[in-house]
TrEMBL record:
It comes from Natranaerovirga hydrolytica. Its EC number is 2.6.1.9. This is Histidinol-phosphate aminotransferase. One of its GO terms (biological process) is L-histidine biosynthetic process. The modification N6-(pyridoxal phosphate)lysine is found at residue 216.
Length: 354
């Protein structure tokens, strides 16, 4: 009965529900494998010492957190908006941009929420296929051409791209920004694992929004905290779609602590990047592997010789993301870089599946 009331265009639409379950080695969601350091955990404990932190509504504008983020990037508070993960910012932005039937251009394969949120917000996703034979590199000319032809309300770019791991240079992003008029959203959820950011371009381009998250490099996936940086006008537009009190008080509190101690995370990031390079070398040589795509993120896209590897790893208590049936990623799995020990266990498990 209730089905009759659901929007007709959502028939066949699936909820976003990644695999759950307890796996001793969890390498499926690109989380940070390390524990937060003692200094951070001690600061976090302060939260409950003030009972009003729980009983009062949080600051609905996340003002103190935005100040710290803005200071770090040499912007003003008005250039920042915070969300319940960058997922929420994607949704809020699409909410205020899309009128029914408007188009949104995005790469494919890429982060699934661009499409998901576009459809939920009555938009039409226009996917630009990244070429597997070219390591899924962005074709800048094609992006510009399709965007100008389709006249979308926004263009998403993801760098490093999830799940392919490749990046866009600022030169490439700039050539897109110069050639298209619509808002360009550069999702940098994994930018801490590489050495480039489009944030440097914000001052010159009013239609650029850069998305960042605390979920990956800063190990805060459980608290849900992301933000966008951009010109005041586009940030004000996103704010129109943000629900009241979106960020709970604890997430705001911990986000501020992380901004205060951001350098503490550098050593974790160095280890992850070193482990990434070590894993690429080793996994590339395995018998069951056809190819490991170059990656500048905290995960690897691995093309295997069969489509049963994710299942085989799961039986050995290792959860990875299975893309093996995706038409543009046949036989591929995506593996998060874990601790050295987890990575060694992954290598052993892969060897045993040969
Ligand atoms: N962008 C990309 C490219 C991602 O991979 C993810 C998480 N998988 C997100 C955004 C969302 O991150 P969060 O909502 O946790 O900030």
């Amino acid at each position: 009965m209730i089905k009759n009331y659901i929007r007709k265009d959502l028939s066949g639409f699936q909820p976003y529900e990644p695999e759950l379950g307890q796996y001793p080695i969890k390498l499926d969601a690109n989380e940070n494998p390390f524990k937060h350091s003692e200094v951070i955990l001690n600061e976090i404990n302060e939260f409950t010492k003030d009972p009003f932190n729980l009983s009062r509504y949080p600051d609905t504008t996340s003002s103190e957190l935005k100040k710290k983020i803005a200071k770090y990037w040499h912007f003003k508070k008005e250039n920042v908006v915070c969300g319940v993960g960058s997922d929420q910012i994607i949704d809020c932005l699409l909410k205020v941009l899309i009128e029914p039937g408007d188009k949104i251009v995005m790469p494919s394969p890429s982060f699934s929420m661009y499409k998901h949120s576009t459809v939920l917000n009555h938009g039409v996703p226009i996917e630009i296929t990244l070429d597997e034979a070219n390591n899924y590199a962005y074709d800048i000319e094609a992006i510009i051409k399709i965007t100008n032809e389709q006249k979308p309300k926004a263009l998403f770019l993801c760098s490093p791209n999830n799940p392919t791991g490749n990046i866009l240079s600022n030169k490439e992003i700039e050539s897109v920004l110069k050639a298209v008029d619509c808002p360009v959203i550069v999702d940098e959820a994994y930018a801490e694992f590489t050495h480039t950011t489009a944030i440097d371009l914000i001052n010159q381009y009013e239609h650029l929004v850069v998305l960042r998250t605390f979920s990956k490099a800063y190990g805060l996936a459980g608290l849900r905290l992301g933000y966008a940086l951009g010109h005041k006008d586009i940030i004000d537009a996103i704010k129109l779609g943000v629900p009241p009190y979106n960020l709970n008080a604890f997430a705001q509190f911990v986000g501020q602590i992380i901004m205060d101690y951001i350098d503490v995370y550098k050593s974790d990031l160095d280890v992850i990047m070193k482990e990434r390079d070590r894993l690429i070398d080793i996994i590339n040589k395995l018998e069951l592997v056809e190819k490991v795509y170059p990656s500048e993120a905290n995960f690897l896209l691995i093309k295997c010789k069969k489509d049963t590897i994710a299942k085989g790893l799961k039986e050995k208590d290792i959860l990875v993301r299975d893309f093996s049936k995706h038409p543009n990623m046949l036989n591929c799995i995506r593996v998060t870089i874990g601790t050295e020990e987890e990575n060694n266990q992954l290598i052993q498990a892969l060897k045993s599946l040969e």
